[in-house]
């Protein structure tokens, strides 16, 4: 009888472990699909010490995008003055409709060290 009880407990443990594993995988798949869906409507800007992850970001006039800012290294904030965008750790995203064609300066808005003055990138809005 003891062997049967142990066998049943083993089967129950395997079924429960499989269901936990499956639910974790399905959550990751759902999150990855949501990220892909948002990729077309998101502009990601990542800051590290004294530079942004791209020298130039390009968008089209009329695009409505969520700008998402993050720090990979150091403590930074970013600002695009002409578009009234200022993001930091506390306010990491903002939805923006790009209605003006042109080049806009992106700069670090938080004094971050000796390379702060050179921490500049460009946002280009095209037709």
Can you describe this structure?
With 127 residues, the chain is an alpha+beta fold. Helix content is 30%, strand content 37%. It contains one helix and nine strands. It has one helix at residues 2-39, and strands spanning 42-48, 51-52, 56-60, 64-71, 78-80, 85-87, 93-97, 102-108, 120-126. The strands form two sheets. A five-stranded mixed β-sheet has the order 3-9-8-5-6, with no helix packed on it. A four-stranded mixed β-sheet has the order 2-1-4-7, with no helix packed on it. The longest helix has 38 residues, at 2-39.
Task: Give the integer mean of the pLDDT values.
Answer: 86
The helix/strand class is alpha+beta
Question: Measured on Cα atoms, how large is the radius of gyration?
Answer: 23 Å
Q: Which regions have little confidence, pLDDT < 50, spanning 5+ residues?
A: none
Helical percentage = 25-40%
Instruction: Please indicate the percent range of residues in DSSP E strands (runs of 2 or more).
Output: 35-45%
User: Sheet with the most strands?
Assistant: 5 strands, mixed
Strands across the major sheet, in which order? 3-9-8-5-6
Q: What is the overall number of helices?
A: 1
Q: Count the E strands.
A: 9
Shape: elongated
What's the short story on this structure?
This protein is of the alpha+beta class and 127 residues long. It has one helix at residues 2-39, and strands at residues 42-48, 51-52, 56-60, 64-71, 78-80, 85-87, 93-97, 102-108, 120-126.
Main attributes?
127 residues, alpha+beta, five-stranded mixed beta sheet, four-stranded mixed beta sheet
């Amino acid at each position: 009888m003891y062997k049967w009880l142990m066998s049943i407990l083993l089967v129950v443990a395997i079924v429960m472990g499989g269901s936990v594993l499956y639910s974790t995988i399905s959550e990751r798949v759902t999150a990855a699909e949501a990220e892909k869906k948002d990729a077309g409507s998101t502009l990601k800007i990542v800051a590290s010490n004294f530079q942004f992850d791209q020298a130039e970001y390009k968008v089209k006039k009329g695009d409505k995008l969520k700008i998402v800012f993050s720090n990979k290294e150091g403590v930074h904030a970013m600002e695009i003055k002409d578009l009234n965008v200022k993001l930091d750790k506390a306010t990491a995203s903002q939805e923006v409709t790009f209605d003006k064609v042109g080049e806009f300066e992106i700069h670090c808005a938080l004094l971050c060290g000796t390379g702060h003055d050179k921490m500049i990138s460009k946002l280009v809005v095209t037709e």
